[in-house]
Write a structure and sequence with these properties.
alpha+beta, Protein HflK, three-stranded antiparallel beta sheet
Length: 375
Amino acid sequence: MPWNSQGGGGPWGGGGNNGGGQNPWGQRPQGGGGGGNTPPDFDEMIRKGQERLKRLFPGGGGYKGFVLIGIAVIGLWLLTGFYRVQPGEQGVTLLFGKWVGTTGPGLNYFLPAPIGEVIKPNVERTNQIEVGYRGAGTVASNGSRDVPEESLMLTGDQNIIDIDYVVQWRISDAGAYLFNVRDPENTIKLASESAMREVIGKTNLEEALTVGRVRVEEQTRTLLQKIMDGYDSGIFIAEVKMQKVDPPRDVIDAFNDVQRARQDRDRSQNEALAYRNDIIPRAKGEAERQVLQARAYKDRVTKEAEGEAERFTSVYNSYLTAQDVTTRRLYLETMQDILNKSEKIILDQKGDGNGVVPYLPLPEVQKRANAGGNN
């Protein structure tokens, strides 16, 4: 061979400082000729490692030792598949990145990484999205920034209204939430705008500003939930709250004037209704009283006439039975009735002829008697 030398031993054989046919990664040269560090002896390192394994497994040999170590490593790897889902969370299990199931709270097991993965989102936390404004707080305030392209809407009576509102939502199905919708928050915001515009488009301006706010909120929440269910988004819409409902800023003064005029109109109408409700019942009561008085008078006169007719009939029947007695009794009763109501003067026609008429002034005597009794 061309690299043989007289000392023999291969290309790094004798003649060198190492001598004795060592390989190129042998001991440091003993002489002072070459000098410098040489690479480590990998063969020696492998041999020493095998010897250590043999000492660990004296009866099994190297192959069985490697098998046992592999089994132990695999067992430890499989134990890492246990995971705990806290209350308020859902465990979403992924197999090679594919969603294969959802687990509830508690201790569960799934294949560990890199084969399996578990995502545990919180499903009880209420999230909030602001629409129509941007602010640090939960309520639209004077310091918040208005977003007209989101808040200006057209009502059913062709008026423009400025609405700021918030959408509160939670995760109902973690798997669907993570994998069926790419951007859940932006999807909720855009869908809520669509739902609110549809509801406001069927509502008059005055109703949306006053008594119809609760109805608008509930209808918007129902419609938005229907949209999210159609996407199979795994999202539950808890509530839609309207924070500010006003006319556009440019016409708010004119709108307030119109509102004040309407309030004056309503006040005048209420006063007129109150007067009508006061005067009409009293007039009806007076008319009813007069009708009842007339009926009472009619009944009284009718009864008196019937009594007089019965009395006349009774007197007539008595007259037919005893004419003389009845005639005298009628005469006496008539004279008693007449004389009882007239002033009476008694004259004695059988005087003694002296030309003086005996006179008894009974009315004067009665007046003096009454005057004396009062004193």
